[in-house]
Amino acid sequence: MKIKQTYTSYQTIVLVTLRILIGWHLLYEGIAKVVNPYWSSSQFLKESEWILTGFFKWIMSNQSLLSLVDLLNEWGLILIGLGLIVGLFTRTAAFFGVILLFLYYFATPPLLGMNYSMPVEGNYLIINKTLIEAVTMILLILFPTGRIFGLDLLVERFKEMKNSKGM
Questions:
Q1: What is the pLDDT of residues 17-55, one digit of tens each?
Q2: Which one, 9, 57, 119, 165, has the greatest CB density within 10 A?
Q3: Contact (Cβ atoms closer than 8 angstroms) between residue 15 and residue 145
């Protein structure tokens, strides 16, 4: 059973704005990494102290794998960010964004007894901006804002038009 839900104008504006803001953040982070010839995920992975430490150390031990992870990280951020900004493949972009952000979180979670050499923006305990952004992206998966305001709306209309013509 599909329940048709409508949103108020304010709800729609806030959800779409949230999608675009997170998209901008991820896009900017990706571009900043691409244009910096010295950027590598190795320093971040080296900081890992939690449940995926062995996995991250394994990535660092293989230069080819590390280069692939760097490339996927840079362009993943860019593509996820663009998808969210323009509202194209919004749920897919948000899904991969959630995975990426949870990997960041699990690499360096703000837990007691864990000290990182990288500067942090504040004092956190368990919850930080990465976790909040990841959970917010789950919200974007649940609310199809790309179909309200974005290119997903055009894709959906094209599919409907194609189906109505019997193609």
A1: 999 999 999 999 999 999 999 999 998 888 888 888 899
A2: 57
A3: yes
Residue 3 included in any domain: no
The pTM of this model reads: 0.86
Residue 86 to residue 81: CA distance in whole angstroms: 9
Comparing CA positions, the residue from 3, 21, 13 lying closest to residue 136 is: 21
- Position 153 in a domain: yes
60: tokens are 């660092």
Determine contact, residues 126/71, Cβ cutoff 8 Å.
Answer: no
Mean pLDDT score across all residues of the chain: 88
How is the chain split among helix, strand and coil, in percent rounded to 5? 70, 0, 30
Angle at which helix 9-35 crosses helix 63-86, to 10 degrees, equals 150
- List, for residues 128-156, the tens digit of each pLDDT value: 899 999 999 999 999 888 888 898 888 88
Number of domains in the chain: 1
Cα distances (angstroms) measured from residue 8 to each of 14, 21, 151 = 10, 20, 20
The verdict on residue 51 lying in a domain is: yes
Report the number of secondary-structure helices (H) and strands (E) in the chain: 8, 0
Cβ pair 100, 46 in contact under 8 A: no
DSSP conformation class of 2: P
